[in-house]
Amino acid sequence: MKISIIVAKAKNNVIGKDNQLIWKLSSDLRLFKKLTTGHHIVMGRKTYESVGKPLPNRTSIVITRNRDFELPEGHYVFHSLEDAIKLCISRKLEQVYIIGGAEIYLQALPICDELIVTEVDAFPQGDVFFPAIDPDQWNEISREHFPCDEKNEYDFDFVIYKRNDQN
Fold first, then answer.
1. C-alpha angle 104-95-9 in degrees, rounded to nearest 5
2. CATH code assigned at 124
3. Distance CA 55, CA 133 (A)
4. Which residues contact 38 (CB under 8 A, 6 or more apart)?
5. Which residues contact 131 (CB under 8 A, 6 or more apart)?
6. Taking the complete model, does pTM exceed 0.85, yes or no?
C-alpha cells in the first residue's frame, strides 16, 4: 500500500491559521480532489472539523483522542495513526492519503512513501506548520508551476517527492 502525504504549505512551512486554510488556490483544490477521489483519506479531528463533513466520494478516517467522536456511516474514527493504517492494510487498499493536520503529518512522515506538496509562494502568518522536508530523505521527482491569477491568490508549485531509498 502506498501512503502519500498531501499538503499545501507556504515558503515558511505555514499550513494554516485558526484551523483554516489561509489562501484561495482553486487549481490546488482541483488537484487535491482529482488525486483523493475514490480513496481513503486520513486526518486529525481538527482537520475534519475545518472541512465540516466527509468529502464526497472518499472514505474519511479521523484520528482523535476523543472517545465519543462519531462520523457518519461508512467513515471511521481511530485513536492512533497506527490503527488507521492497520484498517487500510486490512482493506487491501493500494493507496491512502494523509491530509493533515500538523500532528498527523509529523506522525506519518516516517512511514509515508510520497509527499505531494503544493509549495505556495507566500510567507503568511500562521499557527500550524509542516515539518521541513529533509533533502537527505526525499527526492523531488516532478514539479509543475501554477501562476497567480483570478482563481489562485499566489503563485505555487505542485511538487512530488519520493522517499530516498538509500536511507
1. 40
2. 3.40.430.10
3. 28
4. 57, 58
5. 13, 105, 106, 109
6. yes
Position 166 confidence tier, pLDDT thresholds 50, 70, 90: low
Q: Grid coordinates representing 87?
A: 484498517
Whole-angstrom CA distances from 63 to 15, 42, 99, 104 are: 19, 7, 11, 8
> SS3 of 16, please?
strand
Max Cα separation, the chain? Answer: 44
Task: Report yes or no: 33 and 118 within 8 Å, Cβ to Cβ.
Answer: no
∠ CA 39-94-68, rounded to 5°: 50
Please state the domain count of the chain. Answer: 1
Q: Tell me the residue range of the domain where 23 lies.
A: 2-112+120-163
